[in-house]
Amino acid sequence: MPLLSSWIEAANDPACPFPLNNLPCGVFSVAGGPRHCGVAIGDQVLDVTAMERAGLISLADRAVLDRPEWNAVMALGPAAWTRLRNLLFGFLRAGSDLHSSVSRYLHPLSAVELHLPFSVTEFTDFYASHHHAQNVGTMFRGAENALPPNWRHLPIGYNGRASSVVVSGTDLHRPWGQLKGPNDAAPRFAPCERFDFELEMGAVVGTPSRLGRPVTVAQADAMIFGYVLLNDWSARDIQAWEYQPLGPFQAKATATTISPWIVTRAALDPFRVAAPEREPELLPYLHEPGPMNYDIELEVELTPQGGAPVVITRTNYREMYYSAAQQLAHHTTAGAPMRPGDLLGSGTVSGPERDNRGSLLELAWGGKEPLDLGGGVTRSFLEDNDRLTLRGWARAEDYTIGFGECSGILRPAIAPPWPVD
Predict the structure, then answer these.
(1) pTM passes above 0.70
(2) Assigned CATH for 9-115
(3) Architecture of the domain delimited by 123-411
(4) 277: Cβ contacts below 8 Å, ≥ 6 apart
C-alpha cells in the first residue's frame, strides 16, 4: 500500500511515524484538562471524543468515545473499527472538503500529555522468542538442555499484573524482595540487585471470546485490535529464588510499561510476514491460515543519569516463534474467556546476534560479559536513574508506521514501612 496523502503536511513525510496510513489510538489531555480519546496524525492529535459529541463521528447507537479509554470502541468489533478508520480517512485525506470542520479538533502533539490508552483488564506474558529462550536456557542449563521439553509445542506464558501496567513516561522504583544467591545460607530481604528490561510487543484484545469456547488462530487474529511496544521490567535475582516450581511472581510485578499509542491491526496488515521455520510441526489447533508475524524494527536505548543515550540492541518482531494470534488462540483452549482490554506480551524479542538481544540478562550474559556503553561506563544490570526507551517502526518505501516511545526511569528503592537490617 502506498502513502495515503493528508492535508496535514507533516503526515506526508516518509519519516513521520504517524501518516494517514497509521492513525494510532491514544488518550490525551491538554493543560491538565479532561482526558479524551485521540488519534495521532502527523504532528497533531485529533480529538475524536469531541468529534463524537459534535455528531461528526457515530459508531453505535450510544456514545463510545465519551470515556478516557478505547475499550468501548474495541468491544464493537472489526466492522466498527473499519468504519472509524474510513471516517478518519475521509476527514484527513488530501483534498477533503471537511478540512475546515475538522481542523478545530486538532492539537499539537508537543502540547498534550499522553495517558494509558485503554483499561487493561488482564495481562499475560509469553516466552515466545526462540533466540531468547535458547540464550536464557543455555545460561542456566547448558546448550543441550536450553529449551524446556514443551517449548517447541506450545506458547509458554504466565498471568501477570494488570494493575501495574503503566504508560510511557511513568517512573518506577527498584523493588524489594527475597534474594538468595548461590553462596547464601539463607534468604535476605533487600532491594533487587539485578533489575532488567525486556523488549516486547503487546497485543491488545478488542473483542471477547465466550466462556468454555476456544477460538481458532484465524478468529484470534480478528479479535486483536492492535499492538503496543511493551517493556516487562524484570527483577532477575528475585525471580531466581522464587520461580520454582510455579514460575514468575513478584519478579514481574513491579511494572510493565507500554507505548501510548495502539497501532491498529489494519495499519500493520501490509507488513505481515511468515514465522520462522518450526520443527517439529505444531498441533493442528495452532496452524496459521497465513502470515501472522510482522516486520517491525525494534531498538532499545539506555541513558545513564547524566550520560549520553546509547542504543544497546536492535532486532525485529518477525523473529517470534509464536505469533500473537497463536498465543491468543492457545490462551482460550482451557475455556477462559478473553475480554476487551486484555493485553498479551509477546515475550522478549531477541535475534540471532549479540546486538539483537532483548534484555540485559542476554546482552551481558548474566553479568559475566558487561555491556560497554562507552566512556568507561558499563552495565550488567540497570542502575538507579537509568532511562530505558523502546522504539519500533514498520517501514514501507514511502511511509513509516510508528508506535511512539516506550520509556521509563528506574528510581531508587523506597524503604518499606518496617525496620530492615
Answers:
(1) yes
(2) 2.30.30.230
(3) Alpha-Beta Complex (3.90)
(4) none
